[in-house]
Amino acid sequence: MADKKNRILDTTAKKALAAAIATPAALFGAVTAVNHLAYRRSNIAAASEVYNRVTGNKKKMADAVEWDNLILDRSEANEQRQTLPTLLSFKVSVEDTDFDGMQTLVLNRRSINDRAVIYVHGRVLVDQPSIYQWKFLDTIARRTRAEVIAPIYPLAPVHGFREAYDKIEALYLETVKKYGAQNVTLMGDSAGAGIAAGLCQSFSPKGIEQPGHLILISPWVDLTLGNPDIAHYEAQDPMLSASGMRKVGKVWADGTDPRDPRLSPINGPVSDLRNVMVFTGTREILHPDAVLFHQRVSAYGNHSELFVGTGLHNNFPLYPIPEASGTINSIVTAITMD
């Protein structure tokens, strides 16, 4: 009798153990199915969204008081000389230099370089580059024959757009003198992509030659975020809040109408832009305007490529997710193209 009970208990235990093992496997399978079928993204990309939703500043951006306090905290730090993240190791050389009083990090400077990339970082105009941006630039520098230049440009709320634009434009002109405009790529992410686009639009009236490539990652091309479709995308975006962005944009504009093309290049001339690449995720607040900007450039018959990351968040090419691999390949190909 005891043996029979033991056999029953043993069978029950085995079934319970099998169920316990199967449950996480089934859950993982369900999550994978949802990510692939509903969002068409990898589990790692989904985890990246969760991470950014939990650790990001979207809630603070949406709270006027908390956002004001965060901006003020950042402003003090931004006036100090920036140091690279301690956990970051580069595979290329890094030089901490100055250009026209602006701290400028130069990656992969070598005598054999025959081209350059100027990278304008985003971070909502109030923060310095993150470890993800530095890792991305390290990869770009390592895989190209390019000198990669990252200006630590003046940020809000202490500085306005004019000061930053003047310094980045001067840096661009100096780089063009060395390499030629056709061998210079101007690239940026989010707010930095908006700056890059706005600068390029301002070049032709000044007689400044356009860069060989203009690469825009999740570009913020309308400072007002006036597109009615944005409300839908804001609900899905794990990182950004429209109200917080508009507040920073008004400070950055420094008395200028935020709709001014220098601040909102979606409203500016695009006929002279060349070799434009736009990367955008479908789960980011900037997606609808990024698509519109690409469409405007294409409508003029200029070369513009649009890369849409289905189910992906803001600046997805910068993150260690499988979907970033193909976009990085495309960027490397463009930069190294002769």
Automatic annotation (TrEMBL):
Q: Name one Pfam family in it.
A: Abhydrolase_3
Q: Which GO terms describe its molecular function?
A: hydrolase activity
Q: Which residues form the Alpha/beta hydrolase fold-3 domain?
A: 117-312
Q: Can the keyword Hydrolase be found in this entry's annotation? A: yes
Record-linked InterPro entries: AB_hydrolase_3, AB_hydrolase_fold, GDXG_lipolytic_enzyme
Q: Does the keyword Disulfide bond apply?
A: no
Keyword set for this entry?
Answer: Hydrolase
Please identify the protein, giving its name as recorded.
Answer: Acetyl esterase/lipase
Species for this entry: Parafannyhessea umbonata
